[in-house]
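TL;DR need structure tokens for one chain.
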Amino acid sequence: MSRPIILITSLILLSLASFTLALTLGSYSISLHDVVQTLIGNQTGIEQSIVMDLRAPRAYVAFVSGGLLALAGALMQVLLRNPLADPYILGVSGGASVAALLAVSFGMGAVFISFSALAGALCSILLVFGLAHSHGSWHPTRLLLTGVVLAAGWGAVINFILSVTPEQPLRGMLFWMMGDISQASAHISALVVLIFSLVVSFALARQLNILARGDMQASALGVNVKYLRIGLFLLASLLTAFAVMQVGSVGFIGLIVPHMLRMIMGSDHRLLLPACALLGGSLLLIADTFARILIAPQQLPVGVITAFIGVPFFLFLLQRMAGKQS
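>> reply
TL;DR here they are.
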């Protein structure tokens, strides 16, 4: 069996294991046998309600959102040719956060908050695209600077909203900004976007491999660098927008997963991109399971858990990169 098949098979098994943990563990533990019986329709009562109404939809949201973030992170790192790039670097999450916080402050429901976040993210995407593409120029540095400045502006608006908001909705706002899956709705649209983006990015994988070596070499080999970058920006932004709509601002998944996989399997995007979707989904699902059980019956924002995982790994990654350069 070839190495790529082994790696993808291992990630599929990890995904199944993460779903198993998510469905069995919690304040009320359910055996694997009861979970299986519930899924095939042979179980009723409290187990059926917990699995089908609470844990399964939440597991679905966590896995799909993790896949969206990891795939967006991999595309952003190629687009900007920056190892520190993550899905939120261009201010998409800032626009989503402003819209979502306004919806929370007006007492809107969870579904309306999610779609407000999506609208805010799409608005931010259009602003970055329009400002970075003015006068026909399109360069990673200009795009990055535009996104960073816009993100700072969104940050100021967020701080203003938090400063003038009464105490009652403030906790919900802070949870959403740290990444919260407890109120998420299981939209089929996010899965459709993930599958569509995987198909498109896989079709572009050869061009991404060439682009990663530099613009001049890519142009010499027949790659239309300008239009490829525009496509990558739109695709990565769409992935980020739907992830933020589902779970808020969950950090580190989009940053560390592509790096982790490059250390294991190299930089061939034909293998890296589907692997990112699988590993990103598994890690966010495992993190959400820990967020539910660490201080049960209370729950932590899942972004807290991903930060606990991401910070030490990223420090290790920096040390490893410094060791190679010395």
